[in-house]
Design goal:
The structure holds 2 protein chains of 2 kinds. Chain A is mainly β. Chain A has no helices and 12 strands. Chain A is globular, with a radius of gyration of 14 Å. Classes of the chains: A mainly beta, B mainly beta.
Chain lengths: ~110, ~110
């Protein structure tokens, strides 16, 4: 079945450091890919998405590129802030009214001063 | 604009008591609706999804059930809670899944 693999956390960075959170997927066909963010005690918010190969999703300084050849969708940010501390989930789905979103296990990011 | 409401935000219930969590969506018609659970320190587990009124698909056999009595209302229930039902419950909706889901703010359930 379809699956998403994320790097184990927690990831601890100093403010202004460069962030990479790895995400790879296994799926039959070409899914849409997403990054969601969950701040402490809150629900999930869509951070960015890409719907086809080579698309780059970006939002709030974060970006991720859909790489079909490596089945990856790594999340990056050039300079993290303390306010970026959260859990980040990579996910995939296929187009269709009854398609389900398959999530990775999440990666906790902690940014310190 | 579309909004999703989930309540209550927190709930503490004794073992063996019933449960009812409600989720409603505004500003869209015939959405797909989903219930997820997030156990402490773990990822997201899809519990139920619904593509229409009265249509419920269960992903994981368990102590819970779901119902969709109206187009934009999704209810998660249990007749008798177990300790293992504790977790963070998230409702979500979508129309075109290629564009992702929109999540509610969640209900933190503690069974004691």
């Amino acid at each position: 079945g379809d699956s998403v693999t994320q790097m184990e956390g927690p990831v601890t960075l100093s403010e202004e450091a460069f962030l990479t959170i790895n995400c790879t997927y296994t799926a039959t066909g070409y899914p849409s890919l997403f990054w969601y963010v969950q701040y402490p005690g809150e629900g999930l918010q869509l951070l960015l998405k890409a719907t086809k190969a080579d698309d780059k999703g970006s939002n709030k300084g974060f970006e991720a590129t859909y790489r079909k050849e490596t089945t990856s969708f790594h999340l990056e940010k050039g300079s993290v802030q303390v306010s970026d501390s959260a859990v980040y989930f990579c996910a995939l789905t296929f187009t269709g009214t009854a398609s389900k979103l398959t999530f990775g296990t999440g990666t906790r990011l902690q940014v310190t001063l | 604009s579309q909004t999703i409401h989930q309540w209550p935000a927190t709930l503490v219930q004794p073992v063996g008591s019933p449960l009812s969590l409600e989720c409603t969506v505004e500003g869209t018609s015939n959405p797909n609706l989903y219930w997820y659970r997030q156990a402490a320190g773990r990822g997201l587990q899809l519990l139920f999804y619904s593509v229409g009124i009265g249509q419920i698909s269960s992903e994981v056999p368990q102590n819970l059930s779901a119902s969709r009595p109206q187009d934009r209302q999704f209810i998660l229930s249990s007749k008798k809670l177990l300790l293992s039902d504790s977790g963070f419950y998230l409702c979500a909706w979508s129309v075109l899944t290629a564009y992702g889901y929109t999540f509610g703010s969640g209900t933190r359930l503690t069974v004691v």
